Structure formats: C-alpha cells, structure tokens
Amino acid sequence: MTDHRSQALVVVAHGSHLNPDSSAPANEHADTVRASGAFDEVRTGFWKEEPSLREVLRTVEADEAYVVPLFISEGYFTEQVIPRELRLDGWDVSAWDSDGLSADSATLTAGDVEKTVHYCGPVGTHGSFTDVLVRRAESVTGDPDVGRDFGLAVVGHGTERNENSAKAIEYHADRIRERGRFEEVQALYMDEEPEVDDVTDYFESDDVVVVPLFVSDGFHTQEDIPEDMGLTDDYRTGYDVPAAVDGSRLWYAGAVGTESLTADVIIERAADAGADVGDAVERVRDSTAPEPADD
User: For 208-230, what is the mean pLDDT?
Assistant: First the structure.
C-alpha cells in the first residue's frame, strides 16, 4: 500500500473591489471541481478580494498545491503578480519556456509555508479552452449542434493591452476555424482592427455568435461591447438575444469564463502538472453539459 500525498487545488483570479460578479466564476468553478472529489482541498485566492493571494496558501493543509490562474493569457499577473504574492521561491518566467501561449507548469516551493507548489499556466491558453468557446456558442443559442450557417466572433482587447492576449484570441479562433464547424470564424478586437464595432462587416452569415474572451462579466462585456456592436444604445435597458443589427442576428454570449465547462480546463491544467485526478475530467465534462433542448 502506497502513501497518499494529499493534494490541493488553488484557483487564483483577479477579483474586484467594485464588481461583485468578478469573483463569481472562480468560486463557481471551484465548487464544481470540489464536487468532483479529485482534490483533498479546493481553495480560491484573489488579487483584489479575500481570501488574498498572499494568504491563500496558508489556508492549505495538503502536502502539494496545484495553482491554476483563472486568466485568459500570459502576462503581468501570471508572470509577476501571482508568483510574487504566493512567495514562490526561485520563480522565473523562463521556467515556463513559453512563446506566450505554451506555459505549462513549474514546480517550486512556497517559502513561508514550506509547501510544494505546481504553478500552472493560465486556463485561457490551454487547448481544451477552445471547447469552452464552442460550448458557450451552444449555450447562448440553445443548440448543441450550432455551427451550420452560423458565424462565430471571438472578441478580446487587442495588443495595446497585452500582446499575448491577442495571441490567445487568434489561437482559439484558428483552432475553431480548423474544425470546420462554423461557416465563418473571425477574431475581433476592442482596441484595434478588425474592430468589434463593425462586427457585421466581417461576416456573410445571417447569424453570428459573439463570444468575448474574458474570464468574468464586467464593464467591457456588459457595457462596452453590447453598445459598440449596436445591440443597445444604453446597456442599462438591456438587449435581445439574438438582436437584429444591420440585417444580421447577433447572439451575444457574454464572458466565456462564466461557462461551466471552464472547470474542466482547470482540472486538466492541474493534471498536466502531475495531479492525480482520476476520471474527474470526464465526469466534469458530463456534469457541465447543457440539458438537451425540448423539441
């Protein structure tokens, strides 16, 4: 009989002092993973909320912790803020040997708690996150087979904010395009061409699903993008889904990170770093699948 080294999952996210919805996806996905039984403990930690990144590892009792950033892309937070706040001894971004999309994991020690920490790349650059975008399109349309005669727009900030953010957008758009499921797939941006403001100019399809590549719903996804696309003149009055814009029907999905299948990607990140998760990936995929639509 072999000894079982206890393992914890720590989901880390940005959070917000101003937007209570910001931390909701992290907490909901943590609940889903917790219910799977794959880890002895599941914790959440935030940059702008409690429990804080600086304290979260002190709440972990397990021998090993798998830290998974609930972020879309590699950048300032995943490369500097999180490792610093977790006090990961010896951290250097070169440990990921990444091109901006390929961060996997690095095994380090959290100095003040003397725990082994497997620090993983962000969920948003994992290959399985492509499935989350497709699932988001299925969810907003209520059609598990959506794709035929539909366009799909993947929307993000653009390179002015974070060069790697644009890489993640293009990466997933390319992967979905290669599957041949949707008639058209286009990456669009808030800060640069091709701009989401002109979404209907980039599609011939009458129906277009628009999925923002953001973790949580906030100012950009709830206010900027709907108004920029012409779904509404004032986000406070709401808008239809689908909404008629310039002769097209736009199915606006909201932030992709709110999709429940994201929990599966979190588990896969930890599994890639060596966590023993059993069949949790398959079970979470099944448990987060949308209910079949009534005929």
Answer: 94
